[in-house]
Amino acid sequence: MAATGNSARRLGRSFVNLYGREFSTSCGSGSGRSLNLYSAINQALHIALESDPRAYVFGEDVGFGGVFRCTTGLADRFGKNRVFNTPLCEQGIVGFGIGLAAMGNRAIAEIQFADYIYPAFDQIVNEAAKFRYRSGNQFNCGGLTIRAPYGAVGHGGHYHSQSPEAFFCHVPGIKVVIPRSPRQAKGLLLSCIRDPNPVVFFEPKWLYRLSVEEVPEHDYMFPLSEAEVIQEGNDITLVGWGAQLSIMKQACLDAEKDGISCELIDLRTLIPWDKDTVETSVRKTGRLLISHEAPVTGGFGAEISASIVERCFLRLEAPVARVCGLDTPFPLVFEAFYMPTKNKILDAIKATVNF
Amino acid sequence: MALWMRKSLKTFNNFKCIMGSFAMINQTSSWSSSFIQNLRNPYSHFGNLPTLFYSSGVESTTAQNQSDSSFNSGCSQQVMDFPGGKVRFSPEMKFISESPEERVHCYQVLDENGKPITGSNYIQVSEEVALKMYSNMATLQIMDTIFYEAQRQGRISFYATTIGEEAINIASAAALTTDDLVFPQYREPGVLLWRGFTMQEFANQCFSNKADYGKGRQMPIHYGSNKHNYFTVASTIATQIPHAVGAAYSLKMDKIDACAVTYFGDGGTSEGDFHAAINFAAVREVPVIFICRNNGWAISTPTSDQFRSDGVVVRGQAYGVRSIRVDGNDGLALYSAVHAARNMAINEHRPILIEALTYRVGHHSTSDDSTKYRPVDEIEWWKLARDPVTRFRKWIENNGWWNGERETQLRNSVKEELLHAIQVAEKVEKPPVADIFTDVYDVPPSNLRVQEKLLRETIERHPQDYPSDVPK
């Protein structure tokens, strides 16, 4: 794969690895190749198009491989009728995708940055999400998957850094999925594409190149709405998703040096989410910390916190902690201040355990 | 029909000539070099605009009236390859006029007396089809009268009539086949009627009973029928237009002999979805027909507050989409235009825009009183002098296909059938509580299963809080 990507839509700078993010959850099966996250996405898209002749990939600049290179080689392999550029218009991309999916196709739409998904908000919320319900199941657009890179990159400022997942978690009828690593990305994306419901799939763009692990070459899928315990522990439960898990993992390692045993859970699907796995863990540890990059107020962490308090009130030994983004727009030079960094998480772990 | 097609081809060949110069693709990759070359020409780059401005004086700032013959007059010798095709340079600074000297003409076949206008070219409609068209238009009028009254009596919660737009509904439907996919707004129930949706099915939806295909989830008039390729109505404006484009792309890819058709009003063309859709359709070259019912009013907003262009038809050329303006109260003109549009859309893989000029004779909906914002005289004039159903009736009567006796018979039998359907629909029970939770996803996830259980427990504790006609 040509490593010429990284071009932000309205900005163009190379990535700077400010926080030493690298994350791998390789199971060490050894059956695959070492791949970064964008290449794993690319592999999933190849498989999706190969395995279903009625699958289509479209969006801004996807024809030449996409600004993050996720669609590299697809147009050459599958032709310009199945992999194509669209006009620069997010509501058009999603609206077109709904119509395409309503005809029984797999419509895989790319929104170039999650920060630009808002023009398509109405199409996602009022149309895609309600298409099956309002027709009494006479029609559906379940074949629609909307991919969008989300999250901080170190230099993205307001419009190349946002994590808008909570907006979509308020919408019955769609699913929201966020992978944490290349292996996860491939398996989850294939599940989303083949799921009979419209899905918004946010890709952690910081990890496109940084996260590398063994990814099986074959066609495989991970179940949706199933969280995964990626590290077992006894003192506190940590819940996150996407790129933030790499930060949380580092906090876990540091906490361990202080003798605190953390259980780390990747939620993977945000709606409909796997309450049972989180509840089981919190019943064991008695403590819960949630961390996400999006602003804390109204973030999905609030929903998790409320739900677990409802279920585990008497078992909790400390208030649920949320370590999240600030309630500000995403500020360029202040990114390090805005972010839910490792030490913010570590402090919160200690405060919660010592409550 | 042959005559019509000949004329049509001539018109569009002209169109092709005009478009041809824009459609030339630069295959020599000489864009950058020719650009640099032309930069050296003082008359060909924007850096010299101030000079041109001063030397040419006032004249150069006068907008140029747009007509095909004068559009490119005064061309200089310079031609440059821009991405998308060659563009000729001009030493004159002339702005294109914001509006044409004359508004785009409106295609009409039948005059107000139902007589074909001399020299009009149209597709012949058989007696059988014509009578079905008329019967359906009359049925639509009766449905509007009776359902409107049912709403006023409090038997249904909402209704919106199609009065004044019966011809657009029925004539466009008649020119399509049932394989063509319909993405409606909400003022096109006639398309569904034409395709065989029964009085009972309409009534079931309006009364939100358990036979409503939408399971009682949407307000009255939000019809949908998979069997009739009629996608379920949403109250949102213009959101269905890009869906039609995506579906049309699927038809093209699957090489199916059908097109997608989407309807919307003049107000809908201000929504981003309209612009997105028509642009996508042009770029992807899909078989879709955009039918705009320009009825003059978006609730209380007149078109003068909606747009400053010459209506909607002119948007077509701006997006590279073939378009036509049609008298929306002339069933024959509409039938011919949609028929031709369908052929072009499918055979040439292209979108077509049809602007049907009409008037919303009814209120926006039962929640609206349009006499608060428009003169009653205006409404009455359209209702009496320009009624599309009357005009079509005159035509079939002139042909000897219809008479007063058949008219009375038709109206009586439709009225009887509809009143019966309403009585039946009213007695059918509502959809069950279980239908709240189905179809959000393909299968209810755990949170919905939990919520259903909790709701049922609440219903048992407080049955008095809930409507008794909804099965628990």
TrEMBL record, chain A:
Cofactor field: thiamine diphosphate
GO CC annotation terms, alphabetical: mitochondrial matrix
Organism: Rhamnella rubrinervis
Pfam families: Transket_pyr, Transketolase_C
Single Gene Ontology MF annotation: branched-chain 2-oxo acid dehydrogenase activity
InterPro entries: THDP-binding, Transketo_C/PFOR_II, Transketolase-like_Pyr-bd, Transketolase_C
EC numbers for this chain: 1.2.4.4
Annotated protein name in UniProt: 3-methyl-2-oxobutanoate dehydrogenase (2-methylpropanoyl-transferring)
UniProt-annotated location(s): Mitochondrion matrix
UniProtKB/TrEMBL annotation, chain B:
Pfam family, one: E1_dh
Subunit architecture: Heterotetramer of alpha and beta chains.
Domain Dehydrogenase E1 component per the UniProt entry, residue ranges: 136-432
InterPro entries reported for this sequence: Alpha-ketoacid_DH_E1_comp, DH_E1, THDP-binding
Source species: Rhamnella rubrinervis
The protein's name: 3-methyl-2-oxobutanoate dehydrogenase (2-methylpropanoyl-transferring)
Major place of residence: mitochondrion
Cofactor: thiamine diphosphate
UniProt keyword terms in alphabetical order: Metal-binding, Mitochondrion, Oxidoreductase, Potassium, Transit peptide
GO MF entry, a single one: branched-chain 2-oxo acid dehydrogenase activity
GO BP, one annotated term: branched-chain amino acid catabolic process
Enzyme class, broadest EC rank: oxidoreductase
Membership in a protein family: Belongs to the BCKDHA family.
GO CC annotation terms, alphabetical: mitochondrial matrix
Catalytic reaction(s) noted: N(6)-[(R)-lipoyl]-L-lysyl-[protein] + 3-methyl-2-oxobutanoate + H(+) = N(6)-[(R)-S(8)-2-methylpropanoyldihydrolipoyl]-L-lysyl-[protein] + CO2
